[in-house]
Structure to design on (129 residues):
């Protein structure tokens, strides 16, 4: 990755990562979220959405916060996720990453948020809260 400093925005709210059966469609409760992401594979359907929208009984890991890398990012850029994940891994902070056409989103547990923000800003990343 080049030496250009990336800017990230901390999205409001707390989010959950849900696991649904591979035969399920994207549920309406997920679509009502300010931010949602859906991935369907041959094994599962994964949903990321506002944790308040997740009904009881859904398998979910909650209490995630989202850092959006301000884009759009050029497809020729190399090592963006690698550089961010390395900074956080060195601080023993687990991430869940989502990539879209325009940018990347890094989810960190709310309990790790302050440490993640400190580590990233210490490495030259700008974080807008």
């Amino acid at each position: 990755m080049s030496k250009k400093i990336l800017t990230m925005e901390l999205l409001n709210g707390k989010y959950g990562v849900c696991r649904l059966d591979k035969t399920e469609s994207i549920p309406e409760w997920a679509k009502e979220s300010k931010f949602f992401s859906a991935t369907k594979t041959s094994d599962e359907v994964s949903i990321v959405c506002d944790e308040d929208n997740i009904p009881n009984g859904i398998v979910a890991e909650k209490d995630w916060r989202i850092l959006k890398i301000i884009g759009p990012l050029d497809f020729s850029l190399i090592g963006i996720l690698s550089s961010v994940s390395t900074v956080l891994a060195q601080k023993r902070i687990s991430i869940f990453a989502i990539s879209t056409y325009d940018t990347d989103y890094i989810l960190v547990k709310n309990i790790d948020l302050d440490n993640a923000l400190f580590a990233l800003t210490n490495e030259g990343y700008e974080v807008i809260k």
The chain has a mean pLDDT of 91. Residues 7-124 form a domain with the VC0802-like fold (CATH 3.30.2130.10).
